[in-house]
Structure formats: C-alpha cells, structure tokens
Amino acid sequence: MRSLKTKQSIRVPPLIAMPVLQIGQTSIPYTVRYSSRTKRQRLVVTPQTVEVVAPTDTPQEQIAAFLDTKRRWLFNAVEDCRPKNPPTSSQHYVSGAKVMYRGRRLMLQIEEADVERVTITYKSRFHIQVPRYLAGDARQEAIEQAFVEWKRDRARLDIQHFARVYARKLGVKPRDVKLSEQKRVWGTCDKDGTIRINWHLIHAPLAVLEYVIAHEVVHLLHRHHGDAFWGTLGSVMPDWRERKVSLESWESSSVPS
Q1: Who's near 27: CB < 8 A, 6+ residues apart?
Q2: Inter-CA distances, 233 with 29, 95, 167, 245, Å
Q3: Which residues pair with 231 in a beta bridge?
Q4: What pLDDT score was predicted for residue 80?
Q5: Are residues 170 and 217 in contact, defined by beta-carbon separation less than 8 angstroms?
Q6: Whole-angstrom Cα distance, residue 172 to residue 235?
Q7: According to the model, what pLDDT value does residue 1 have?
Q8: Angle between helices 60-69 and 71-81 (to 10 degrees)
Q9: Neighbours of 154 (CB within 10 A)
Q10: 3-state class of 189 per DSSP?
Q11: CA angle 42-195-105, nearest 5°?
Q12: In what order do the strands lie in the sheet with 176-180?
C-alpha cells in the first residue's frame, strides 16, 4: 500500500482586516500585514488601500498607538491619493440666495453697478455690486472668487485676533499663524510653533472657530491630549467641552462652501 504523504502546514500570519481609523469625519479603512522581515511598523498608502506592515506578533494595542501618532500624516497621504478633479460649486449667486457665514445662512443682495470688479460689503446680509459687463457663467465665477477672497480675509483677521488673545493669556508666542484648507483638518500646531487654521471655519459659529484656535495655541505648551493639555485649555476657556460638541455637530451637518 502506498503511503500518503501530507504536506506540513506552515502557519503564515494572515492579512487581518482592522477597524477603520476615524479622523474627524473621514473614515480610513486599513489592513495589517505581519512580516518577519520588518523590524518596525510602517505604512503603505496607495489609491486603493492603506496597509500597516508590522513585525510578527506585534500587539494590536501597539499598532493602534502607532496609527494614532501618524494620524495627520496618514490623512494627508490619503488625501493626496484621491483623484484631483476640479471642485464643482453648487452655490448659485443671485439676489435672495443665502450663503453660510459664522454658522448662519445670510441673504445675498446683488446689483449691477459701475464698478471694475465685484465688491462685497456685509451688514446683516451681503450686499454685492457686480460690473455691468459680466453675465452668465463669468458673472457667477467672478462672484464666487470674490467671496472666497472676502471670506479668507475675514478668517485671517479673526484667526490672528484670537491667536493673539490666547497666546497672551498663556504667555506663549507662535512662530507664525497661517491659513490652511485641508479638508476636515481644522487646525494644526507644527513642531516649530507655526499654527495653521482652516479658513473654512469662517462658515462655523464664531465660538467654534475660537475653540479651534485656543486648542492649537495650547499645543505650544503641551504636544499631547493628556490631562495637562485639557487642564490648561480649561483655564483659559472654561466652556471648551460645549464648544467641542458644537464643532462636532457643525462638521457632521455641514459641507464647506
């Protein structure tokens, strides 16, 4: 009788599906691949997948901690892999339409005038003067561009004001305060002391914008989110919890315009 030879099974750590990493409103699914050839954890990001390559037998808690330290880098890497299609605007700029500003939808009043470029003034509503020669798509594009410039300028003033206020309260000095526009990343504090605040927060309630700025200023003292961080934030903004909830509520129900 011929003997039957069975192949010895070799245990190869499988490709394990892990819970998604949640960054703000962005969900990033990822997998973990264990490898005996790697000595430390690393990330591989492609347009299709996010993969953590880890040494064999790396505890899941250690993988989670590694991902937490790479949140900002990972978000930017995933965004860079997204198709770069030109954004389309759903906003139609006509009298009676409304645009978001500081958490409120405010009405537009548009009129043709003898002006060389679109001008915008604000007092309970937006009053817009448009050159008479503009019409159709060119008119809409000119108004949209003027609004972007107007809101960025207003955001810059608000952000610099609140940054000065909280820097003075905490006895710190940012290296610089700049605008950013990364989707769903509202604020960052770089290691060199540069604070970046997303100008799209001009659409949020002012208390929310102020919270994000104070949050990043505190990071000049504490680079973590431990008890010391929240204690310092509470010393200059006692209602930070309510403002944080307002931010989460606003970002879950809004689309930057």
Answers
A1: 20, 21
A2: 32, 42, 12, 15
A3: none
A4: 67
A5: yes
A6: 15
A7: 36
A8: 70
A9: 16
A10: strand
A11: 105
A12: 176-180, 194-198, 187-189
For residue 76 the two structure tokens come to 């930017």
Neighbours of 157 (CB within 10 A): 11
Region for residue 34 given its phi and psi (left: phi exceeds 0; alpha: psi -120 to 50; beta: otherwise):
beta
Percent of the chain with pLDDT over 90: 49
Which residue carries 């339409």 as its tokens?
A: 97
Give every residue of the chain whose pLDDT is below 70, as ranges.
Answer: 1-19, 24-25, 80-90, 183-184, 253-257
Q: Tokens standing for 243? A: 């403002």
| Among candidate residues 49, 95, 56, 98, the one with its CA nearest the CA of residue 74 | 49
* DSSP-derived pairing of the beta strands 26-35 and 50-55: parallel
The span from the CA of 246 to the CA of 212, in Å, is 11
Distance (Å, rounded) from C-alpha 100 to C-alpha 165? 26
3-state secondary structure of 177: strand
Q: Is the pTM of this model over 0.70?
A: no
Cα 131 to Cα 111: distance, rounded to the nearest angstrom: 9
Residue appearing with tokens 């300028």: 153
Token code pair at residue 135 = 């019409």
pLDDT (tens digit per residue) in 158-177: 999 999 999 999 999 999 99
Distance in angstroms between the alpha carbons of the first and the last residue of the chain: 78
Q: What residue has token string 């129900």?
A: 253
Burial 247-257 (b: 16+ CB within 10 A, else e): beeebeeeebe
d(CA 159, CA 186): 12
From residue 125, alpha-carbon distances to 107, 130, 199 in Å are 5, 16, 20
